[in-house]
Design a protein that fits this description.
Elements lengths: L6 E7 L2 E10 L4 H9 L6 E12 L1 H15 L4 E5 L3 H10 L4 E2 L20
Parallel strand pairs: 2-3, 3-4, 4-5
Antiparallel strand pairs: 1-2
Length: about 120
């Protein structure tokens, strides 16, 4: 059972969907994140705010990579906003196909998008 501090909020904005994750992402909570991401289609852009995440294990990376593949097959894009520095490092080291904004507070610039080998 997920801890009471964990939440996934889903906001449908037409062709865009915003997801906000708060709490730890691990083997227990990863299916909840996966489910929220699966409900995003047919959106063209899926924005995931990671400002509120704490601990995350490899299951979080697996969820985001699988979602990026599934969403990318429809021509849509998954973007992770304000990821923690540790997630940015893991994505760079592994060469995962994720689009990340840089780990900075909202309103401090657009961030960066990492190349996505799965999109091609």
């Amino acid at each position: 059972m997920p801890p009471s501090r964990f939440s996934v909020r889903h906001q449908d904005r037409g062709t865009r969907v915003a997801i906000t994750v708060v709490g730890d992402i691990d083997l227990t909570t990863a299916p909840l994140v996966r489910g929220a991401l699966a409900r995003c289609l047919p959106a063209r852009t899926v924005d995931v705010d990671l400002t509120g995440i704490g601990f995350r294990d490899v299951s979080s990376l697996n969820v985001f990579v699988a979602a990026a593949e599934a969403i990318g097959r429809t021509g849509a894009v998954l973007r992770l906003h304000r990821p923690p520095d540790s997630l940015v490092r893991v994505v760079r080291i592994t060469g995962c196909a994720l689009h990340l904004s840089s780990p900075r507070p909202a309103g401090e610039g657009r961030g960066e998008a990492l190349p996505s080998p799965l999109a091609g």
